[in-house]
Amino acid sequence: MAPDRDIIRGHVPLEPPERLLRTVGAWEGEAGRDWLKALPGLVEEYLARWELTPERVQHPGGHISMVVLVRQADGTPAALKVGMVTSQTREEHAALAHWSGLGAVRLLRDDPAGSAMLLERLHADVSLRSLPDAKAMLEACGVLRRLWVAPAEGHPFASVADHTCRLAEHLRERREQPWAADARPLADEALAALERLTESAPAAPVLLHGDFHHGNVLAGDRMPWLAIDPKPLVGDPGFDLAWLAQDRLDTLVAMPAPQAAARRRIATLADALDVDRDRLRDWTLFRAVEAGLWSLSVGDREDGELALEFAAWL
């Protein structure tokens, strides 16, 4: 006999957080809205299947996933994550399994077909954003050193080369839109930077997080800081570091001479992780411009303009 849903839920509301409703609806269109309608039932299914007792839904939660803090059958705390399957999130479970808790949240159980994962419980309200910028960058570099390992033979992860080829196609399309007219010179610079990067590849590609920033590194009990929410790829470490380089742009904007501060940040991060400075500058330029035009395309003018301003400083 199927378990009573009210017992499984413990009367905990399992409604998707507002941010999830907003972002999935805006980013994924009709498919996203259909997934959101089915999400509460899907969460209940995994609570029952894995014998989990919910405590509360994590707010604000992820942009394309819902996280429920739970207790396992033996009382151990954990987190149930149910996310929308996309090309970027499809292999998240595989990356976490490969890292096996070294530098990243530990995967306890998963169902890749449903994009459901049971994860160790971290301190969700304490990320690297709680630290001063310089200290946060230092800790972030320590986490990346653990994550950048060789992938297993026959791994399922997409390459940075293939991923950025698709990003470049989208960037060219957005470059032609009327609203992107002022950004076309920057878009051309970004595409030229990518061309330079693809002319030579790193000798030993590694497994990358893909979306590494301060908000995706949480405090843990087993280790001080652990990464969450990877969008894994295999390739040049500079691709990962470029996303970190543009973290906390509001902090950079508030600094005296932000252009010089941005260049110093690139140099400091490159030296800390033995990444070529010029390659990191090119990766950062490409990722900032691509992200900026994407943000403008989905109506996020504030973040889009800030990313493009940062790119211009480089």
UniProtKB/TrEMBL annotation:
Cite a single Pfam family from the UniProt record: APH_6_hur
Taxonomy, top ranks, is:
Bacteria, Bacillati, Actinomycetota, Actinomycetes, Kitasatosporales
**The protein's name in its UniProt record:** Aminoglycoside phosphotransferase family protein
State the superkingdom: Bacteria
Q: Cross-referenced InterPro entries, in alphabetical order? A: Kinase-like_dom_sf, NH2Glyco/OHUrea_AB-resist_kin
Species: Streptomyces humicola
